[in-house]
């Protein structure tokens, strides 16, 4: 286990912003899902960015980018402009990409990894299984993105990277899937499941779309048990019902 992200983050979580990286419709069942990212600010003034959304060219021409990547076989972008990119979302809370001290990549699918190159000053924390991939998973057979040259902080198990902030290894959706648990001063405990649980319906569906459904079910059960034990609010990866109800930046949980 790695201690406190190699000493990089010192403070406790102080505020959590839900970042809106756009809207997407899944063809299979027509559900409309939000594409979330998160910004965490510590009481020491540090900024942690969790996931980076779609590649930036999706904001200028989603149709062409989707055709290039073959994304149309899965779904379609409904809303994704410059304001939905990390820089636009960070601007809502008075920050810029250069203010980010650490990027946490929950996994490397296209809607999480797309803006990863935009933070050259920031180390990238991810799981060992994800970093071992020759390239990010991206989408389908498309391998149009390489791992950027960065300082990578690689974890192999659940790791406390700062006081009140834990990164959890929950393989299943992909072998390197991560989730987060954080403790905020007023809101209390929060779990960001990412795609370890994209929506509660997956529990009944048996995680059929996961790389390893059995592992995904075990990871989801572990996260929900942790939520029950700590009284945590759970923010799912792509829940159509929850997304409209979440506070979005510049509003925050604190």
Describe the structure.
The protein has 254 residues and is of the alpha/beta class. Helix content is 20%, strand content 28%. It is globular and about 45 Å long. The relative contact order is 0.18.
Short précis:
The protein has 254 residues and is of the alpha/beta class.
Structural class from helices and strands?
A: alpha/beta
The helicity comes to 10-25%
The CATH architecture is: 4-Layer Sandwich
Strand content: 25-35%
| Terminus-to-terminus distance | 28 Å
Mean pLDDT: 95
Broad shape: globular
Biggest pleated sheet: 7 strands, mixed
CATH homologous superfamily (4th level) name = Ribonuclease Z/Hydroxyacylglutathione hydrolase-like
- Total strands: the figure is 12
Widest sheet: strand ordering? 4-1-2-3-5-6-7
CATH class: Alpha Beta
CA radius of gyration:
17 Å
User: What series of H and E elements makes up the topology?
Assistant: HEEEHEHEHEHEEEEEHHE
The tally of helices reads 7
Low-pLDDT regions: 1-5
Topology readout:
Blueprint: H1 4-7, E1 13-26, E2 32-42, E3 47-50, H2 62-69, E4 75-79, H3 86-92, E5 102-104, H4 110-113, E6 124-127, H5 128-131, E7 152-155, E8 159-162, E9 165-169, E10 178-184, E11 188-194, H6 201-205, H7 213-230, E12 233-236
Parallel strand pairs: 3-5, 5-6, 6-7, 11-12
Antiparallel strand pairs: 1-2, 1-4, 2-3, 8-9, 9-10, 10-11
């Amino acid at each position: 286990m790695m201690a406190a992200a190699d000493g990089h983050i010192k403070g406790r979580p102080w505020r959590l912003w839900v970042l809106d990286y756009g809207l997407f419709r899944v063809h299979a069942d027509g559900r409309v899902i939000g594409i979330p990212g998160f910004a965490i600010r510590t009481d020491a003034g540090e900024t942690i960015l969790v996931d980076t959304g779609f590649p930036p060219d999706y904001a200028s021409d989603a149709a062409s980018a989707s055709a290039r990547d073959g994304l149309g076989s899965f779904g379609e972008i409904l809303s994704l402009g410059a304001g939905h990119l990390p820089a636009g979302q960070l601007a809502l809370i008075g920050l810029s990409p250069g203010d980010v001290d650490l990027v946490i990549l929950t996994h490397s699918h296209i809607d999480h990894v797309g803006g990863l190159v935009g933070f050259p000053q920031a180390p990238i924390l991810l799981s060992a299984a994800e970093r071992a991939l020759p390239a990010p998973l991206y989408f389908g057979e498309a391998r149009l993105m390489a791992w950027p040259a960065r300082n990578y902080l690689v974890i192999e198990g659940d790791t406390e990277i700062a006081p009140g902030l834990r990164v959890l290894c929950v393989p299943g959706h992909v072998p390197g899937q991560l989730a987060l648990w954080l403790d905020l001063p007023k809101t209390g405990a929060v779990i960001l499941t990412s795609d370890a649980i994209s929506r509660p319906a997956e529990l009944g569906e048996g995680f059929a779309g996961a790389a390893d459904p059995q592992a995904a079910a075990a990871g989801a059960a572990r996260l929900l048990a942790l939520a029950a034990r700590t009284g945590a609010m759970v923010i799912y990866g792509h829940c159509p019902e929850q997304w409209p109800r979440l506070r979005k930046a510049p509003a925050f949980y604190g």
